[in-house]
Design goal:
- This protein has four domains: 172 residues, Rossmann fold (3-Layer(aba) Sandwich), CATH 3.40.50; 88 residues, no CATH class; 87 residues, no CATH class; 108 residues, no CATH class.
- The protein is built from 20 helices and twelve strands.
- The mean pLDDT is 81.
- By secondary structure, it is an alpha/beta fold.
- The longest helix has 57 residues.
- The protein is elongated and about 155 Å long.
Length: 642
C-alpha cells in the first residue's frame, strides 16, 4: 500500500505518463462525485478483479476523522472538493453548466421546484388511479333517444338530476313498453302489402296493353296502304327512268337496291364536300381521285340528276310517310306483352275473363305491328270485333285499380309512420330501462369525472407556478450568484490572460446555470484554439471553486496541457496564490510546470514522485524535486557506461 500525506497548502504529485498517478486522482474524483468522475479499474490482467479500497484520514474543523473507503461515490463531506481535469474542459467551455456549489437561499428554489413537480406527479397518479372505465357508451343505446344524447357528452357537465329522472323506470313504464310491443307487432307489414305490390304490377301491365290498343285503334290502315302503293309506284317509275337513262352504259345491276344506295350515298357525299356545279372535265373523281374525262364527267352528272329527280323526291316522300306509320306503332312491344300476359294468367288462376279476352286481341296487335315494320300491305288484317269495348273496359279497370292502389298506399304510409313513432317510443323506454339497471355505476363514474375535472384544472396551475418559480429563481440567481460569479470569472480570465467572451445565464427548473458566448450561435470550441479553451475552462473552474469560500481542497489533474510557456507561468502564479488560502492538490507529468510550482511555493508545499518500477504502478515517494530517472533506469545507465 502507498501513503500520501497532503500538505495544508500545496501538494504536487509528479509522474510520467502511465506511472499510475491518475489512479489517485480518480479516487478523489469518485469521493467527490464530480462531473467528470471515472470508473476506477483494478488490475486489468487479473482474472479476479477486486474492489478498490483506501483509508482516508481527514480533519473537519478541529475534529479528526478516518474513512474506510470501498469505492463508494459522493461520500460526505468530500462532495465539497472541486476537481479539474482534461475531461472537464468541454463541460466548462461549451455546456450550460449549473453550479457545484449554490448558496442556501438559491437551493430553496430548486427544492421548491422539485416539491411542486412532486405534488403534480402525485396528483396525476391519483387522477389515473380514480379513473373508471365505464362499460356503457353512446353506442350502447339507440341514436336519437334522450339517453343516447346524454351519453354522447357524458361527463362533469352532465345533468345528474335529469339522468336520475330518465332512470326512474317504474311499473307504468313497463306496462307502456308491453303495449308498444303489441302495437308494433300489429303494425308490421303483412299480405296487404304483397297484394298492393301485385295490384301495382297488374296496373302497369294493363296500362301497357291499353297503350297498345289505343295505338292500333288510332292506326289509319287505309292511309298506310295508300302510302305503300304510292311508294311501290314511285319505285317502279324510278326503275323505268334508270333503265332508259343508262341503257347504253352497260352498268351491272343498275336497278338493284344496292346500286340505288350507292348512287344516293355518293350524292350526299358530293353535296357535302364539292362545288354545287360539280362535275367538270378535269375534276378529280370523288371515287378514285383520277382526272375526269368528258365521258366520266357526263356519267357522274347523270348519277346526280337521277338522285335529285322528281321521281326520287316522290319516293322519298312516300318512304317518309311509311316511317311515320311505323313510328306510330314503334312503342308497342307486342311479343313482350304477350309473354307478360301469359305469365300473369299462369300465376293467378282467378285472372278472370278480362285477362283471357286480351289474348286474341294482342295476337291481332302483334300481326299488325309485324306487317307495318316489314312494309307489307296487310290486306288480310282486320281489327277484332269488340276491340273498342275491350279498350274501354281496360281503361275503366286501370282507373278503378289505380284509385284503390293509391288509397292502399296512403294507408300503408300512415301505418309506416305510426310504426316508426311507436318503435322510437319503445327504443326510448328500452334505453331508460338499461340506464336504470346501470345507474349506480353511471353515478359513480360521474362523481369521479367531476373530481377529475377539478383536479385537472388544478394541475394546469402547476405549469404557471413552475414558470413563475423559474423566473424568480433566475432573478435571484442574477443577484445572489450570477453577479458574484461573473466578477470572479472575469477576474480569473484577466489573471490567466484568457480571451474575451461573454457570459449568459439561462435558468431552468429553478436551477441557476451559466453559458459562455463568443459570437452568434457558435460554440466556444468551434472558435477558440485548444489552449484558449483550456485557460477559459480553468478560469471557469477556479471562479466556481472560489464561490464556496471554504477550506475544501481543490484538485487539478494536468491543468496546463496545451498551454504555451507564458500561460503556464501565469497558471503557476495563480495556483500558488490560491494555495496560500486553500488546500491545493496538483497532479502533473509536466516537469517544467512542477518545477515552477516548487520554485514559487517557497517550500510551503510537499512534492511526491509517482513511478512505475516495471512490476507495479503508482509507487509514491516523497521528494524535493522532480527526478527524470528511476533507480532501475540509473542502474541500467551505469551498467551501460561500465
Amino acid at each position: 500500500g502507498q501513503e500520501i500525506e497532503f500538505h495544508p497548502a500545496l501538494t504536487i504529485l509528479f509522474g510520467e505518463n502511465a506511472a499510475g498517478k491518475s489512479g489517485y486522482c480518480r479516487i478523489l474524483k469518485r469521493l467527490a462525485n464530480v462531473r467528470s468522475a471515472e470508473e476506477i479499474l483494478d488490475d486489468v490482467d487479473s482474472n479476479t478483479p477486486g474492489t478498490p479500497t483506501a483509508t482516508i484520514k481527514y480533519a473537519l474543523g478541529n475534529e479528526q476523522h478516518e474513512l474506510k473507503w470501498d469505492n463508494a461515490a459522493g461520500v460526505a463531506p468530500f462532495g465539497r472538493i472541486a476537481v479539474f481535469d482534461s475531461r472537464a474542459v468541454g463541460l466548462h467551455v461549451d455546456d450550460d453548466l449549473n453550479y457545484q456549489y449554490t448558496p442556501g437561499e438559491l437551493v430553496l428554489f430548486r427544492l421548491c421546484h422539485g416539491a411542486v413537480e412532486g405534488l403534480k406527479k402525485l396528483l396525476d397518479e391519483h387522477i389515473d388511479s380514480r379513473r373508471i372505465d365505464l362499460a356503457l357508451s353512446s353506442s350502447s343505446f339507440t341514436r336519437g333517444t334522450e339517453v343516447f344524447s346524454m351519453f354522447e357528452s357524458l361527463g362533469p357537465a352532465t345533468d345528474v338530476e335529469r339522468l336520475k329522472a330518465l332512470a326512474n323506470f317504474d311499473a307504468p313504464c313497463e306496462e307502456r313498453m308491453r303495449q308498444l310491443q303489441l302495437a308494433i307487432s300489429a303494425l308490421q307489414p303483412d299480405n296487404l302489402d304483397n297484394k298492393a305490390k301485385a295490384a301495382s304490377a297488374d296496373i302497369a301491365l294493363f296500362e301497357e296493353v291499353l297503350a297498345a290498343l289505343n295505338a292500333v285503334l288510332t292506326f289509319e290502315v287505309a292511309a298506310y296502304r295508300k302510302a305503300l302503293d304510292a311508294a311501290v309506284a314511285a319505285r317502279e317509275a324510278i326503275e323505268q327512268t334508270t333503265t332508259t337513262a343508262f341503257k347504253d352504259a352497260g352498268i351491272l345491276g343498275q336497278n338493284h337496291a344496292t346500286w340505288r344506295e350507292f348512287i344516293d350515298s355518293a350524292e350526299r357525299f358530293i353535296a357535302a364536300t364539292h362545288d354545287p356545279k360539280f362535275p367538270h372535265t378535269g375534276d378529280a373523281c370523288p371515287y378514285c381521285q383520277q382526272s375526269l374525262s368528258d365521258a366520266a364527267a357526263a356519267l357522274i352528272q347523270k348519277y346526280r340528276d337521277l338522285a335529285k329527280s322528281k321521281g326520287q323526291q316522290e319516293l322519298d316522300a312516300c318512304l317518309g310517310k311509311l316511317e311515320t306509320f311505323k313510328a306510330a306503332l314503334g312503342s308497342v312491344e307486342a311479343d313482350a306483352l304477350q309473354q307478360k300476359l301469359a305469365t300473369r294468367i299462369a300465376s293467378v288462376p282467378e285472372s278472370g275473363a278480362l285477362a283471357e279476352s286480351l289474348t286474341p286481341a294482342l295476337a291481332a296487335v302483334r300481326s299488325l305491328c309485324e306487317g307495318v315494320r316489314q312494309q307489307r300491305r296487310i290486306d288480310d288484317w282486320i281489327a277484332p270485333t269488340g276491340l273498342v269495348e275491350l279498350r274501354d273496359r281496360i281503361a275503366t279497370t286501370v282507373k278503378d285499380a289505380s284509385e284503390k292502389l293509391r288509397a292502399a298506399q296512403s294507408e300503408a304510409k300512415q301505418r309506416e309512420t305510426e310504426l316508426a313513432s311507436r318503435t322510437a317510443q319503445l327504443r326510448a323506454l328500452q334505453d331508460r330501462q338499461k340506464l336504470a339497471q346501470n345507474l349506480p355505476l353511471v353515478l359513480k363514474y360521474l362523481e369521479e369525472s367531476r373530481w377529475q375535472a377539478k383536479a385537472a384544472a388544478i394541475t394546469k396551475v402547476f405549469s404557471a407556478v413552475l414558470r413563475s418559480l423559474t423566473g424568480v429563481a433566475k432573478q435571484a440567481s442574477a443577484v445572489a450568484l450570477h453577479g458574484d460569479f461573473e466578477a470572479r470569472f472575469f477576474a480569473e480570465c484577466e489573471r490567466l490572460r484568457a480571451p474575451k467572451l461573454k457570459l449568459d445565464f439561462p435558468g431552468r427548473k429553478g436551477e441557476a446555470a451559466r453559458r459562455k458566448v463568443v459570437a452568434g450561435k457558435h460554440r466556444v470550441s468551434d472558435i477558440l484554439s485548444e489552449g484558449e479553451q483550456k485557460v477559459i475552462a480553468l478560469a471557469d473552474f477556479l471562479a466556481e471553486a472560489s464561490l464556496q469560500e471554504s477550506s475544501a481542497p481543490v484538485v487539478l489533474d494536468d491543468p496546463v496541457n496545451s498551454l504555451d510557456y507564458r500561460r503556464i507561468y501565469e497558471v503557476v502564479a495563480r495556483l500558488t496564490a490560491i494555495s496560500s488560502t486553500q488546500q491545493l492538490i496538483v497532479f502533473t507529468h509536466n516537469i517544467w510546470f512542477a518545477s515552477l510550482l516548487l520554485d514559487l511555493a517557497k517550500k510551503n508545499c510537499v512534492f511526491y514522485q509517482v513511478r512505475d518500477d516495471g512490476r507495479q504502478k503508482g509507487i509514491v515517494s516523497l521528494e524535493t524535486a522532480p527526478r527524470t530517472d528511476s533507480l532501475s533506469k540509473l542502474k541500467a545507465t551505469i551498467n551501460e557506461k561500465l
